[in-house]
Amino acid sequence: MTRSPVRAIARGVLLGLLFLAAVVAVWEGAKALGGDPWRFPDGKGGETVYVPPLKWPIVNDLALPHVWKIADALAGPVQREQAQTLAGFLVAAAIHTGQEALFGFLLGALLGLALAAGFVHSKLAERAFMPYVVASQTIPILALAPLIAFAFGNGVFGIVIVASYLTFFPVAIAQLRGLTSPDPRALELMRSCAATKWTIFWKLRMPASLPYLFSALKVAATASIVGAIVGEGNPGGSQFGLGRAILNFNEQYTSAPEKLWAAILAASLLGISFFLAVRLAELVALRGRPASGQA
Amino acid sequence: MTVQGKSVVSVLGVNKVFESAGGRTTALEGIDLAIGPGEFVSLIGPSGCGKSTLLRVIGDLTSPTSGTVTVNGKTARQARQDRDYGIVFQAPVLFDWRSVQANVALPLEVKGVSGADRQRRVQAMLELVELKDFARHYPYQLSGGMQQRVSIARALALEPSILLMDEPFGALDEMTRERMNAEVQRIWQQTGTTVVFVTHSIPEAVFLSSKVVVMSPRPGRIVRVIDVDLPRPRNDDTRETARYFELITEVRETLRGRWSGEGAAKASGAATSVASMERTQAEGAVG
Amino acid sequence: MSLATLEPGFVSAPKASPVTRVVRQVRDQAPAIVVFVAVIGLWEAVVSALNLQQFVLPRPSEIATAFVAELPVLQKAAGATLYEALGGLVIGVSAGVLTAFAVSRWGRVRDIVLPIAVGASAIPIIAAAPIMSNWFGILNPFAKMAIVILLTFFPMLVNVARGLSQVDESAVELMRASAASEGQILRKVRIPNALPYFFTALKICTTLSLIGAVIAEYFGGANDVLGRVIVQSSSRLRFDITWAAIVVVAATGIVLYLAVVVVERVVIPWHASQRAGGS
User: Fold this and answer.
1) How do residues C116-174 score in pLDDT, each as one tens digit?
2) Facing residues of B69 across strands?
3) Rounded CA separation A172/A177 (Å)
4) CA-based R_g, chain A, Å
5) Which residues in chain B touch residue C11, judged by CB atoms under 8 angstroms apart?
6) Which of B227, C38, C56, C131 has the most beta carbons within 10 angstroms of its beta carbon?
7) Sign of CA dihedral B209, B211, B216, B219
8) Cα–Cα distance between B111 and B95 in angstroms, integer?
9) In chain C, what residues touch B62 (CB-CB under 8 Å)?
């Protein structure tokens, strides 16, 4: 049975919160067992101290800062003597990175769709280029991301290229499978009422391909974000963007570990929201169809 | 066997050979068949006799290797482009992203019929197959029989002069099948469409048709055409008459190659002895 | 797909002669070969003609030279990176499979864990690379392995869990009708059903493991790993070495993928994807 989109969203939000709560519980729980001593000001100028029973270096305050310390850092200034809060800075950085990824994602998706449509109608084109489309999966574009960004002067354009490449090939392959997925009898049906190739494409092939397309888009959404973050890592690259933020805060790790964690949190939220946006679009586009076994 | 003068479908000397990576297969050999206007003609025979291929040749969904097909005085290709056909398959082949009414509307959309006319026609078709209350449902919410009725409604949407049906009730249980037979009969009498009906079921062929065309395989050819003289309209009582059983026996015996009455061993093209037919029939007997 | 295959009772006749088959193969692959030759030729010609200082995109011949010259370095680096990738792969895949088994036992648990796992794979895990370096030490291969573990765990978990549960219900009913225990159903029905899913995920995971290791190395690491070779050579503007290293990464990825394909063909020859000739 199809789930109503509203129910699906509500369920998703609930699960997300549940997961978050679980993570925080494990985080602080581990620190309670083996971290550094917990200090709380007791409102009288002194401190209450709680000393955990065990000692695990991996959950000490440097490696795993307290969750509330991270929250504090978010409210505090991004750098000493600066007016902007860390949270504000990260939001701006996320938007910057997100925009690059989004443009690349949309560009790559459109190109992938066009390529698939072309392959469906021209066997020659398919035979000539398909092996490369498949082989291109093996080119480690992520590994090339900094190089490509550098080649384009470390500007936004280079990142957009990376993100669109990461989107283009999975979309092209999935879309081609989807466009050729209809039952041959459905094609006969269309021909029996004299439908043109154009009509067959829009009324049969495209709708049939949507489930395949969205599977690829969900994967590509995450890949675009990752590509953007990795591509921003070049020295001399843009000062905005989460990739650079992560690298900068990594350098400041010993003095302010919370900042790096905050940046990672921001990156995670960005990735998840991209994914959710595609998921939402999927729910709308595929409404009325019987649900498949997907999460 | 041939109707002099007005035939809606005229198949002359049609052969169909399939070439594939594996070799050649002769699906149809020397087929001559004439179907008059408003007739209900069944094609029956064991697997590999070419009945589905013949149906598709008539509908211009595949081209004959040689021979001609004339439909409504035009080539089959022209007839298809003029949208003279409706087709129903064994599987409903409904688009699962479209509602029932949108599925029925599909041929009308393809033809370019405008919104209001289209809606009217869709409603009329849904009434014809008695599914008006399910217009907004989606295919997965309907039973197999209901889905098939939708596919029949869709096939009739453009008021085709010829309805092609390829084992449409093969996937249904016996009781639903008999009900659907009654439905098809009723619809046929109401619309007066010429029907070419492929089936595996002897009772179904006899119950529905004006003529039963018996085919045999390797190579696919017409063995005999049997006139069904049961009175219309036919209903459940017809299924209990003696003549009904006689005709079923006649078809069955012809399929087994043992018919020795009128028209025995008459095949278009190559001569066939009863013995050789029995041999070829042994592998693919219709149950 | 020709209509011939739709005919009931269609039986294929003996295959065409070997010569015909070879000719057909060549004719089918010809357009692709033409494109390949054209692209390589064009690359070499354009870069030479425009006399592009090996700015980022050197000529194929230069890359080949650098490859040969730096072979010992590249080999050592490939070995180190492969160690990180495969180490993480083995742990991540095993953890994913075990968790999938644990989770599939109870439908409720699966319905909660699976969407979370799918959501977790939307997180850019690579962003955690600096943290891992800080935790385990920047020179410690385990820091990179940890990233690979996280990258491979989720896809494997999701796919195997689906494979264990999305079983033809009639098959399960058949087993229950002969009073099979849950354990027998698991072994005889669910696990075989899950094998194709496992291999699909494994193909994804091997690629992820290698790329993950290399990218994690971008964020810092020992000098003799492929990621560092790439970063350091490009900062020295020796892009021929950079590309040679990239080629090594790609080639290693292909080899790993093919290894999975071979194992898959041996383990599940009965699966439709293996019979149809090509995934």
Assistant:
1) 888 888 888 888 888 888 888 888 889 999 999 999 999 999 999 988 888 888 888 88
2) B11
3) 9
4) 24
5) 25, 48
6) C131
7) negative
8) 18
9) 3
CB-based contacts of C252, cutoff 8 Å, min separation 6? C78, C81, C82, C210
ipTM above 0.85, yes or no: no
Note whether B216 and B261 are within 8 A (CB). no
Cα–Cα distance for residue pair C95/C102, rounded to 1 Å: 10
Q: Are A100 and A241 in contact (CB under 8 A)?
A: yes
pLDDT tens figures, B104-143: 999 999 999 998 999 999 999 999 999 999 999 999 999 9
CB atoms < 10 A from the CB of C69, how many? 13
Q: Shortest CB distance from B97 goes to which of A193, A199, A288?
A: A288
Determine contact: C235 vs chain A, CB below 8 A: yes
Q: Do C130 and A247 touch (CB under 8 A)?
A: yes
Binding-face residues of A in 65-84 toward C, CB within 8 A: none
State the DSSP H helix or E strand holding residue B19, giving kind and residue range, or none if neither.
Answer: strand B9-20
Mean pLDDT of A71-76: 85
Q: How would you label B7-36 residue by residue, b for 16+ Cβ within 10 Å and e otherwise?
A: bbbbbeebbbebeeeeeebbbbbbbbbbbb
Mutation for testing the A interface, residue in B103, B106, B109 having most A CBs under 10 Å: B106
* Pairwise CA distance, residues C241 & A251, whole Å: 28
B74-75 vs B221-227, strand pairing mode: unpaired
Residue type, B287: G
**Which one of B26, B52, B63, B216 would you mutate to disrupt binding with C, by most C Cβ within 10 Å of its Cβ?**
B52
Question: Can you name the residues that pair with B85 across neighbouring β-strands?
Answer: B162
C117: β partners: none
Judging contacts by C-beta atoms under 8 Å, the chain A residues touching residue B110 are 190, 193-195, 199, 203
Closest residue on chain C to B50 (Cα): C7
Structure tokens at B69: 């097909």
